[in-house]
Write a structure and sequence with these properties.
Structural class: alpha+beta
Order of helices and strands: EEEHHEEHEHEE
Distance between the termini: 22 Å
Largest sheet: 4 strands, antiparallel
Strand order of the largest sheet: 1-2-8-7
Number of helices: 4
Number of strands: 8
Strand content: over 45%
Length: about 210
């Protein structure tokens, strides 16, 4: 968006700028779920404990952080009658060492989770990428403003105001070690670029 306005302080040009920066993710997020079904609630919880315990090797691997655990249990219905009980545990995991990703995935798959999703690549410290994106956003806004100033046979003056819009980060090999789980090296789970975007609105003095 670009607009030209007249105010008591003289004419101004308002422009929007967008900038982004990409770099390879250095952390991987995974979601794993384990469930168990039994006739009674106690048996379902006990069986779930056995299944989660089978993933204990993966949980203890270096370079893995368990961000969150969520336990749940509920009755299973068939029509209007209860036929058993299902218990589950959802794990939110972060692989802080990408060299450990294959071992973690292999161990998790070997534990036979009900559901396993990932990796989603993220940055451990997005601040530097954010600053670069902001720099490019301001430069984009400046170049747009200079173009409109020239079109008005003027030139760009000082910056009056700068406002920021929310930024977003999102995604668009490893050492081989002996593992008891399936071999996942052929899946191509290399780190992927993470893009950080910045947007700004800038107001500039128009000199005529």
């Amino acid at each position: 968006m670009t607009e030209t306005a007249i105010d008591p302080h003289g004419p101004e040009i308002v422009t929007e700028g967008t900038g982004w920066h990409e770099q390879l993710g250095d952390r991987a997020e995974l979601d794993a779920s384990f469930t168990a079904f039994a006739k009674t609630r106690a048996d379902a919880v006990r069986d779930l404990g056995h299944r989660v315990a089978a993933a204990g090797r993966a949980m203890e691997l270096p370079g893995l952080l368990v961000r969150n655990r969520r336990f749940w249990v509920h009755n299973e219905w068939r029509g209007n009658r209860v036929v058993g009980c299902r218990a589950g545990e959802d794990l939110a995991l972060t692989v802080t060492d990408v060299a450990a990703l294959e071992d973690v995935l292999s161990a998790l798959v070997g534990a036979e989770p009900t559901d396993l999703q990932g990796p989603r690549w993220v940055l451990s410290d997005p601040a530097a990428a954010q600053r670069e994106a902001q720099h490019r956003a301001v430069e984009d806004a400046r170049q747009r403003a200079e173009g409109y100033a020239a079109a008005l046979s003027g030139r760009l003056g000082t910056l009056r105001r700068l406002s920021d819009a929310p930024t977003h980060a999102g995604p668009v090999a490893f050492a081989s070690r002996e593992s008891v789980g399936p071999d996942v090296r052929s899946l191509g789970l290399e780190p992927e670029p993470v893009r950080v975007t910045a947007r700004c609105t800038a107001s500039w003095t128009l000199l005529t």
